[in-house]
Structure prediction request, 507 residues.
Amino acid sequence: MSSSVQSIIAAGSSGIVVDIECHLSNNLPNIVIVGFANKAVDEAKERLRGAFADSHIELPRKRITVNLAPADIPKADSGFDLAIAAAILLASEQVPPIFDSHQAFIGELGLDGSTRAIRGIIGKLLLGRSRGITTFFIPRANVRQAQLVPKITIIAVDSLQSLYNHCHGSPRLKSINTGDGLFEASYKPANDGVQLSEVVGQAQAKRALIIAASGGHNVFFTGPPGTGKSMLAKALPSIMPPLNHEEVLEITHLHSLASHDYEQIVQVRPFRAPHHSASHVAVIGGGLSLRPGEISLAHRGVLFFDELPEFSRQTLEALRQPLEDRVISIARAKETADFPADFILVATANPCPCGYYGTSGTCRCLPQQILKYRQKLSGPILDRIDLFGDITEVNHEKLLSQGLDVESDNDIRQTIASARQIQAKRYQQLSKLNADMTNADIKHFAQLEVTASSLLNSAASRLNISARSYMRTIKVARTIADLETSATITSAHISEALAYRGQTYKD
Prediction:
């Protein structure tokens, strides 16, 4: 007797629909799993034996052959347990054939027959929905995440016994129609950390952060130690708008692929700050199972590189693609995966190895040491940064005199939210910002006044900026104009955008 049900395996940021075929034959009792399965999948045999025994369901005393098709694709997922159990029940005719091609089973079984949450459930549901699957049997622990996915039906399975009873109609498991997707109104902006008003002075740097948060632009702060560069970076998430439904879906899925708490919903914008000793794979992504790295975990949030020149050159150069395309492609011999990486990069650096060149402190660095330190950052990387800011020393007397201005922070958040609403209306996309404009978008939406265009062309010639920097300057100017609710880009907007080009660190 044979049977077949469907399941889904994670592959990069999406997945593959797998047919779980089961065949029973009158040979020595055994369970054999074929179809390029790894050890985690092959060990399902022992989990199934325990689950059937503790659920008081008969495991056929036959040779049970389970095939995971297509057989030439590697399978490395514990989420096949529930599907294999359903296929065995069907093949042994212990349950009626009530399942069809529009249903899929995803879940891991414990030895006691209970279901356990699995990794990457959102990506699997989205992939299944795109392939015509409308109903998903999943562990109850994954239901909260799964309800974010719109236009599907979820059936929460507590145990193998509950699935067995559902097939016999006593009692039936409850179906959950997600509709437009569950989006909890309690989601709030990430404003429980450092507030922008806590930073004393640094008016230009604060203005750069406001522009960055409004248009999604990358920022690079340079200055001596202890002047507030890291504090400014940590304050950026506090002025960014709360996540919308689409962003929650994307971020939760990525964190589910990489985090140990893969059944949780990510409610605030990510702030990732990897140490410069982090490995290339940890930052970029990859590994044996091709999981997202820090740049993807910072998707729709902030990626903070403190002391940028201290990171390895291999890691820095790998940032070229995500900073330009907002996606990272990881290619290996066995498979290739694309992970989204749409983040705001905030980087910091000292003016020299000791940190006191050009300040009131005493710099003991030799000229060649300073040159070598700055040459760690290549031109193509610096060219992809929109806003450069010099952080100056703060008068000590002001450090304790300035209080927390909550009202000012709220006003800044409202201004940034209004600028983002203008962009959402312009591009007809909730999450597309000015930093994501293509060349065609710039020609259509930039709307430079004649004087502004003339000023930009003149400055570009004098400053010898690249074509990429030229276009990025227009993007920044468009964001500045949006902050002032200006329909066109004026010469004042271009002047401010050019002021952030930051030639000092490049020289």
